[in-house]
User: Fold these one by one.
Assistant:
Number 1:
Amino acid sequence: MAWLNSPAVELAFSLIFLWTIYRFVTTRKSKNNQGELGLPPGPRPWPVIGNLHLLGRLPHKSLAELANKYGHIMFLRWGSVPTVVASSPAMAKEFFKNHGLIFANKPPSATGRTYSDHELGGGKWFLQMVAEIMHLSGVIVVGDFIPSLAFLDWRGYCRRMQDARKVFDEFFDKLINEHVERRRSKKSDDPDIVDVLLDMAESETAEIQVSRIHMKAIIMDMLSAGVETSATTIEWAMTEMLRNPQVMARAQQEIELEVGRDRIVRESDLVNLDYLRCVVKETLRLHPPAPLLIPHESTQGCNVGGYYIPPKTRLLVNVWAIGRDESVWEDPLEFKPGRFIGSSIDVKGHQFEMLSFGTGRRQCPGIAMGLSVVHLAVAQLIHCFHWSVEGDLDRDEEFGLTVPRKFPIFALPSWRLTTNEPP
């Protein structure tokens, strides 16, 4: 029986003991002091890593598959972080409308920390860095869920985020300095958002003192959210219309009847382009820019859908899965803009079947601007040009805070208006 005293056996018994304690603790946590409600159903977590091993290259798809097994409210542990996933309009309403204040917090992230001076330097390649930051803001960083392993930065995400931040520092400083010089020379006749922020920074009566760091953070949010999400939606709209030429033909016909073929589309024309708006809605249903929205976190324990949700639990709403729910949409995998003709469903968070921009206290504040940009850009692209593409276009995705195409569209345009060039 000497083998019982071997180091390997001692290690095995130690691991079994720790696992037993871990399961006891997690089972006890499924009960709460507000009654006998348990945690929502979900896959059994592994020691240390929890359920992180279940997330594939496209987490929104992995979570949708798990929801098919465990239900529209599902509990997971990502490392040491409790996480609840809502995958239906009813559950989204429960969290956002009935418990919106409790889930108004934003959890910290290693790749999403506040912009700070000591991380900044100089750099170039602005547009590429916008895409880089949007990608890194949505990746799974092990250190966020297993803090003891944060120092490893296995895939280099934290280092890449710091490099991306440095790229923007020189750009933002130059932008702010140019505005300061124009204001000194009194040449700023057309104020913009930077001028507004400078007014707040110089005001002695403002309730909130705005520093240069605050200005950089606000400009960063506007650029990253405004540029990348709009570009992603435009690209998916073109992808779906190239895959469905009858949709593009109908949208082009509508624009021609309103605009003619002797000029480009103006923003004032958009109000009369009903089918174009349906095309954008259908694009946002199938390809929401942020498929899991921005993560939320509970400030206290609460009961949702007959289950107990502990405090400090992260909330993910899988709007990608909701947009493909057969109980909500007819032929959910088909691109059919006509489904929105005469429908009261919009994308502004009023109905929980469409939460492309979120809803409630954490809703995207740039909805109106973003939709205007997308509608006008898509209208110009299909009105001014014929498009041809060789072969079939795939729907392969690249996951981040937004989910763009994995590979850019390669399509050939040809001018279709009667004018030789845009007026």
Number 2:
Amino acid sequence: MPTSAIPTVDLSPFFTAGDDESCRKKCKDLIAEACSDYGFFQIVNHGVPLDLINQAMELSKTFFNYNDEVKRECSSSPDSPLPAGYNKQPDHSPDKNEYLLMFPPESPFNVLPTNPPDFRHRSSKELLRSDGENTENGRSVSPTTTKILEEMFKYFVTTCEILEAIINDCLGLPPNFLKEYNNDRSWDFMVTMRYLPATESENNGITEHEDGNLITIVLQEDIEGLEVCKDGEWIPVIPSKGTLAVNLSDAIQVLSNKKFKSATHRVVRPKGRHRHSYVFFYNLQGDKWVEPLPNFSSAIGVKPKYRGFYYKDYQALRMRNKTHPPSTPEEIIRIAHYEI
């Protein structure tokens, strides 16, 4: 049985006005410790409304209950430069899940579903016909149609910006350093996922891995399955109403020269039922150069543990892991590829 538990941090001091610096410092200390020990923590009072979370999860379940033909109506075309919309893991993949991927709301690459009606956003102006009647695909709809996917995306961005500022301070970097370094939000993306029920012979949802971006947020439903590895032990990230899981990713591990960890994690599928989640990836722009910062290497007389690389090159290698699966686990490209 696991002997450790993932820390939970209350972010409310960062959403309240006034001088609450002692509470903010306590939060930062907890996060700094979690980033050093686990690369993973959970947050409450994070700014994402609970009613929006509940609606998003229910609409996700409704969407994935449609048959494959309906779901594939919002798949991107084979020649699309980015895999937006609905996708399902191929039968030969060890990962057993299907997902809907969304880039920032203004992205021209998004392919969002029209059903359930409240899942995607159509602006009131777009819905309003010249005769004053509001329609979508021939149906009468309210001009206040809930913008669930876009609202979730925007709230996740805001929460990540707060986390980024906290991590910046935890690392002792100059004010706003990470914000200025990572100032392009066009590469962020969000997926809503459904994992198939486990079988008698296997239960892999997502194979153990680290994320390649900066910060990842996970919204789980009330079903366990997400696990993080610490010292060879797999620790469950226990879901709780209104709680979000946060993991640091490879870019932070490289920038900090391993001061903070990129968490190794996996998803184990439950028996007898599907499992749903939302995952938000707070990304770097592809042309960004990533290497250990002097603050954690040359400036303190420590050798860099990684050679530098362009973020887009690393992402291309990670994508090749999926499109051309290696024959052995040892051949999978991970951040260790750049280790010195």
Number 3:
Amino acid sequence: MPTPKPKVWMSVSNATRVLAHFKSLPEMDQSKKMMNQEAFLQQCLVKLRKQLRNQKSEDLELEIALLMRKGLTDGADLGEAEFEAIMSLTWMVEAKVKLVREQMEQVRNQRIEVIDLRKAKEERLSSVVGREKAPVEAATEMLSWFPEDNTGTRFTRVDSELPGLCS
């Protein structure tokens, strides 16, 4: 039986060219990102363990959410659930309650800020209104803008002289 021909990815000329390029690199670049089989497998194992841990965590969260939904909608008995699931459910409910309380506090603080802004605006408006003069004072001040004529009167009726404007 003849030996099967090995499968190669590139031609011999391409392989020698790639190998020559690799050998022409400085030694530091040649050894960069290089590892032995054991180190490579350890790195893969670490990644797989992390994926497994993340998947278990996600599965537990989904189980707890399902348990909570069953308890809320169907009134399912939690006595059938595992102790770990019940403890996790307790933890999740407490975390959600804490989150709701924090959000309520934020809303309260925002309302207080809005109320404070409104009060400041009202105070500014009242201070502006408070600085306005009474109508009599304003009229007296306006009188001082016009010089007196030689008869001692300050105003003359203009409407009789310009009948089209004041009729």
Number 4:
Amino acid sequence: MILLFRFFITFCTLFYLISNVHSEYVKEYDTYDVFYPITFQWQLNKCQQLNIPFQYRSARIHDEKPLGKPKVIRNIPGLVMCFFNAISYALTGSTKYGKVLRSNILQFMQKSEIHGGDDWQKSHIESMQHNLNEFAGSDEIFAAADYLQTSIYVFSEHISGDWMFYSKEGYDGERIKEPSIYLYHSGFEITGHFDYVIDVEHILESTFYEPTFESIFIPVLGSWQSEKMAELLESKTVAKILFKNEIVKPLDTNIVEVMEDIPKDGNSFFNSLSYCITGTIDHSAKLRELVVNFMKESVVIKTIINDESILNDRIENVSKDLVSVDGPVIYAAAELLKTSIYIYSQDDQEWDFVSKNGPNGKEVYEHCIYLNNVDHFKNIFKIVQDVYKKKSYLSE
């Protein structure tokens, strides 16, 4: 009995410490709240304002709808860093800027009278800066909303069972209809994890809403290879047909089988494109040249990187041998090839869609290229030749 009592006191103490002193200001879910996710334009504007590179589109739902429970989530990696990784994904379409954003938000808090003005806040921020194993709590969520000037909704499965609202205007901010970030918090507060909410359940069944697109694995065929050989490389000789038969299967997977013929270096993306088209990596340098030249004229790239000097620097850098590529270059390649590309993040175990029509392009059932990014910091790519194992949705 004494041991049980001690456990109860310990649990309550930990719960209090994690919740932090401002948790009473968190506003609970209201039946009139709206699911109104951020847009590509929001991502672009914020990335430019904060000088953080845009990678992929994170927003997939365009309809506004009543704020039901989370239905489809994006898995976010990281035990302690998950909140900042989720913010990184919302902002850039990649989780790899989580540590950068953690540092930036803590510095923002340090300079803020609201988030870092009293002694407890100063001590807490200093502790967070020196200890990477401290979880984000209510203070950090409010500060992130202020830093991004974008309100954040968090659905807590086990603590409240509802949505909690963190206003960009601070602890007394009002809910208004505006693009917001939506996160899913699983587990109890001392062991909780943040994931990114892509879609929510329909509350009003009588109203039609655009459903979440169910991505499909439909790899390009030999006829596509011959077409691209003739179009881009002025040849019709394909060394190897990658997919001889039509393959159509769900892409909601977390296990991929890759082709091992691609060297793990900075040329891996262009090696992969060369192999997809010709069956060899022999045309990698030519494809890099074609994509680099296309970037100079691409309207899509000028939309993603609208600063001419930054764009010119990026083009010059990408033109060099063994320099790896990131999201904007992949968008240029997809536009050049007139073929959408799916990128599987080995770190996140999730897919990102790169439309041939740019970040605003929608997913449709069509033949695509499928690549596995085995290291999203170094951007090392391999060709996906098959997919397995369906992941679970929060609700079907």
